[in-house]
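Technical annex B. To support the medicinal chemistry partners, we prepared a structural model of the target in complex with flavin-adenine dinucleotide, based solely on the information shown next.
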Amino acid sequence: MTRKEIWVYIERNNSGVEDVSLEILGKGTELSNISGYILVGLIAGTPEKKLIDLVIEHGADRVALLKNEMLNEYSTDYFVNAISEYIKNDPPEVMLIGATQNGRDLAGRLAGRLKTGLTANAITLSIDREGMLLAGVPAYGGKILAEIGCEYGRPQMSTVRPGTFKMKEVKNKKGEVDEFIPNLSAIRQRVRIVERNVSEVNDLTRSERTIIGGNGTRGDLTLLKELAQLMNAEIGVTRPLADRGVAPRELQVGSTGYSLKSKIALVLGVSGSEHFTSGIRDCEEVIAIDVDEKSEIFNHCDYCMVGDIFEVLPLTIKKMEETR
Amino acid sequence: MKNIIVCVKVVPKSDNIIFDPVNKRLDRTKAENQINAADKSAIETALRIRERVGGKITLLSMGPPFFEPFLKLGIAMGVDEAILLSDRNFGGADTFPTALVLATAIKKIGNVDLVLTGEESSDAGLGQVPSQIAEFLDFPQVLFASTTDISGGTLIARRSIKGGYEILESDLPAVVSVVLGAYQPRFPDFKKKKWADNNYKVKVWNGEDLQLSESVTGIKGSFTTVKRLVEIPQSSRKKIIIDGTPEEKSSKLVEILRKAK
Ligand SMILES: Cc1cc2nc3c(=O)[nH]c(=O)nc-3n(C[C@H](O)[C@H](O)[C@H](O)COP(=O)(O)OP(=O)(O)OC[C@H]3O[C@@H](n4cnc5c(N)ncnc54)[C@H](O)[C@@H]3O)c2cc1C
C-alpha cells in the first residue's frame, strides 16, 4: 500500500455498532496524527448510511464497505473470506479489531489466513518510529504488560479490549467511501445459528456507580440489588458467579469481562485475583468488604472494611432508607 | 465418533511468578505448574461426549518434556492417549507456529471428528490458537462454548453472548474452544494415576516426526515478538481501614456512598 493505513474493523450489532469499534477509532485518530497513517473504517454488509456517517464522525478518513447482504450477520466463513480476499494483495499496515467474542473469532482466523502476526486484548497501543505497532497485553493475570510487535507479515493485527479507549467525535469530519462487492456464492457457511435468546442489557463499562459481588455473596445478590436500587447503581459480578449463571456474562468484571470506569465501586466478597482487579483499576474510588483481613482485595481499594457482608449490608440498607 | 483431540497447555500458577523489574524478566522457577484451567473443562467436555457417542480421546500438547506428568494426569482423568509435541526448535513460538504444530499433529493422527481446546491460557491469554488450528485444518470453528454435544453427525454448542445465549450447529469435523467453568472437571482417578505414573508412556513427536522444517516452527516461525515487559503499576489506592462494630461500619459506609453521589 503506497498510502499507509490503519484499518479498524467496525463490528455491527442490533443497535448499530459495538462501542469498542468507535473506541478504537478514537485511539486510531491519535495514532493517525502521530504516524501520518490514514484511518479507515472497515464495514461489512449493507448498513444504513447513518452508520457510515457515524464511523466518519468518530474519526475515519475513509470507509471501506464490503457490500453484500450475506455479511449483515457475522459468520466466520463469510467474513474471513470476504475480508482476506479484499485486502490480501494490498494489505494495510495495521488492522485493529474489538476483542468481543466475534471480533476474536474473526481476528484469529484472519491472521492465520493472511499469514501475519496478531496480538490479543490490547490495553495500550502505540506506533514506534519504524512504524511498528506496539500492542500492550496484560499477561500473567495482569501483573505484567507485554508490549508485542509484529515483525513479519502485514497487516500488523491486534484485538483491543472493550472499554479501554475513549471514543471521540470529530466535528465536521469528511470522509470518502469505497465500495466493494465480495462474491460469496461459493462459500459454505459451516456454522449456523439455530437459536438466539437475548434481552436488553446495561452497558457496565459506562456505569457510574457499581456494586460488585463475588463468591462471598454465596451467589445471592438480593441484598446487593436492594442497595443498588437505593444508590442508583449497577450490579457486577466476578467470573465464578457468571460461570455459575448467577448473573449474565456481560455483568462480569475483569480481564475476560468488562473494565469499569465507575466513580465509585463497592466490592463485596471478592478475593482480589489479578484477573478481577484489572477490571476495577480505572475506577475513581473503590470500597471493599471481605471477612478475610488478608484478602488481596484490600490492596486494591481506597476503603477497606473487614466484615461479613451479610451483617454490614442489611444495616447499611436500613440506614440508607432512613436517611433518604 | 472417530478421534477426539483435546489440546492442552501446562501453565505456571500466576500467583507465584515473580517479575524482576531491574532485568525486566520473569522468574518462573518458583512457580508451580498446572494444566490450564479452561483446558481441563475441554477434557471434561471430551469425556462427556465419549460417554454419549464413543470415540477415542487423545490429549495433545506442545511443550518441553516436563509437561509429561501433567499429560498423565489427563490419562488418569480418563483420556485414551497422550502425545507431547516436543522439539527444541518449537521453543519461543507465538500462536501461529503453535497452532501449525498442533494442526500438523492432528493431521498425522488422522480421522479426527472433533478438536477441543480451552478458550485461552491463563499465562498469555491470547485465545488465538483454536481459530488458527481450525484455519490450518480448514475445519469450522466454534469459540467460547459452554456446552458441546454431538447429535446426528452434527455439532451442537451453546455459548453465552451479550445479554443471553445462542445455540450453534456446525459441520464436523470442527474445532471448539471451551470456556473456563463450562463443566466442573472430574478428579483424576487415584489408581489410574498410579498406573499411568509407572506404566504409561507418553508418545513424543518432534519436528522430524511431523515433517516440519525449523523455519516454520518456534521463534523462526513466529510473526510477533515481545518487545518489552513492563510491570503494571500497582494501584495507588488509599487503603484506609474502616474499623468498628458492624453498626459503625455501616454508618461509615453510608457516609462514603452518600458523598459519592
Ligand atoms: C483465564 C482466566 C480468566 C479469568 N477472568 C476473570 C475475570 O474476568 N473476572 C473475574 O472476576 N475472575 C476471572 N478469573 C478468575 C479469577 O482468577 C478468580 O478465580 C476469581 O476472580 C475469584 O472470584 P471471587 O473473588 O468472587 O471468589 P473467591 O476467590 O472465592 O473469593 C471470595 C471472597 O469472599 C470472601 N467472603 C466469603 N464470605 C464472605 C462474607 N460473608 N462476607 C464478606 N466476604 C466474604 C472470602 O474471604 C474471599 O476473599 C479468570 C481466571 C482465569 C484462569
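Notes passed to the chemistry partners:
Residues A 214-216, 238-240, 252-257, 269-271, 273, 275-276, 289-292, 295, 308-310; B 37, 120, 122, 125, 180 surround flavin-adenine dinucleotide (CB under 6 Å).
Chain B has a mean pLDDT of 92.
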